[in-house]
Amino acid sequence: MITKILEHAGHSCVLVNNGRQALDTLEHNAFDLIIMDMQMPEMGGIEAAKLYHFSAMDNNKAPIIILTANATIEAKRECEEANIDAYLTKPIVARTLIDKINSLCNQYSRTHTPTDSNNSTCIQIIDSMVIIDNEVIQSIRDLSTDTDFLRNVIETFISDANNLLSEMESAIANKNLTLYLEHVHALKGSAGSVGAAMLFEQCKSTLIQAPNERNCISNLKETSQLLQTTKDELFKYLSTSTTHLEEA
Known about the structure:
This protein is mainly alpha-helical. The chain is 62% helix and 5% strand.
């Protein structure tokens, strides 16, 4: 989801699966900016950032943005100790991310100067009774005058969400709860990026519950039902917004 938004904003993106792959890629390639999730398989963003800063030459270091659902003082302190340039809390608002990238790329000099995390924190409170957050969707829509852009973003989200749900079902069938929760984490991030507020909260709730098979099976059923409701609401939003555009 985020890759699609960044590419539309004119950025060229290289996507990797975890912190170890990020370090391998950074060792052989130069980038203007790095975006990492605080929690990733094999190696999280904080550990990867520390190793990157240790190994990279000062004049070749790129600024780092950490994405996290953990909006706590401890998370902020971890980012500061790892010399993270900015961290944004999920769900990520598209315009906030684009503005932060532009700011860091424009201001970052060869002498590394971390930015104030207070100014870069984006905390969005979501009413758990709202299926989709119109403000988040509008922020995506405002990125482009192309009326197909929002539809493409939403359709990409739905495709990714369907695939993740299938992977979650497979993980449960194989009694692999760790893999199941990794897919839930991925779905949570994707849902937050597109404004699927209730689905985001459902995934968030799943991740903080005791990781046992009974809880996961129950949450999987609820997530599947909620995903269908979310898809219906997103397509309804697209239909309504298209009508309004045509009337305008």
